[in-house]
Amino acid sequence: MSKINGCKGMVWNCAKLMPDPTECVTIVIFQVLGCTGSFVYLLFRTVLAEAARSGTGVGLYLIEHDPFEKMKTSRPISFGLAVSMLMIGCDQTTVKDDARLEEVLERVEVLEKHGSYTPALGNIMITLQAYHTKLYYAGMQQNWELASYFTHELEETLENVQEHHPEHHEVDLDRLVTEMAFPALEYMEEAIGKKDADEFERGFERLTNTCNSCHAASGYSIIKIRTPENGDFLNQRF
Ligand code: HEC
């Protein structure tokens, strides 16, 4: 499409500035030179004009070898030709830019398609379950830095629930996360900040209750989360 526009522009420029078909052919040939070629030609014309005015031998030589003088093209038309070539030459760049833009837009479309992958709520929950367990062991080992890290991961995972599944079977999960889960996490963060093991255990119990309250509120009381026991989930050092 942009290529067609480029060609239209070329014919239009040609017809407007060069009514003579010979000149029109010349301009098409010069178009091959592109933008740089057109600049060079404009420069050539300027040097020519200066040299001719100074009346030096170089000036006379250049006049003799100016293709447009040979064609008996008048000065304004010759200048118009140069400008037109410049416009067309630069128009070529626009055509190239348009093609590149089209290519980029196509790639954006592909990326958007891949980026629109939505994790299933069940998958997000299993992630929550893993962080919930890891948080417990980190806290029980009084590794407060690691406990704080897992609390943050829980928060981010709950934000994923809000972003990807704000509603599930007509239950407002977005609101439940804000009203139930976030306050429990804040309590947890405070306990970790204080490096208080008892408070951590209380906070963890509260968090576990929140998981189950939300399951009940959203019609999934079948899913019962508990405090990990017997050091299960042992594929990581806590
Ligand atoms: C905002 C409400 C809400 C909160 C808070 C919540 N859950 Fe869930 N959870 C759900 C819903 C709804 C489902 C059912 C998902 C489905 O339909 O696949 C679920 C399912 C689950 C499942 C079953 C996933 C499976 O496919 O095996 C687990 C495990 C789970 N949640 C763990 C947790 C843990 C651990 C917490 C707390 C850290 C938690 N959930 C907090 C709403 C919540």
Could you characterize the architecture of this molecule?
78% of the residues lie in helices and 2% in strands. The protein starts with a helix and ends in a 21-residue tail after the last helix. It is rod-shaped. The protein is built from 10 helices and 2 strands, in the order ααααααααββαα. A two-stranded antiparallel sheet has the order 1-2. The chain has 238 residues and is mainly alpha-helical. The protein folds into 2 domains: 2-92, no CATH class; 121-237, Four Helix Bundle (Hemerythrin (Met), subunit A), CATH 1.20.120. The model is unreliable at 1-8 (pLDDT under 50). The structure holds heme C. The site of heme C has 23 residues, from α7, α8, α9 and α10.
For this entry, give a set of tags.
Four Helix Bundle (Hemerythrin (Met), subunit A); 2 domains; 10 helices; 78% helix; disordered N terminus
Topology:
Blueprint: H1 2-17, H2 21-31, H3 34-54, H4 57-65, H5 67-70, H6 75-115, H7 121-140, H8 144-164, E1 167-168, E2 171-172, H9 173-194, H10 197-217
Antiparallel strand pairs: 1-2
Helix pairs in contact: 1-2, 1-6, 2-6, 3-4, 3-6, 7-8, 7-10, 8-9, 9-10
The structure holds heme C.
Heme C binds next to helix 7, helix 8, helix 9 and helix 10.
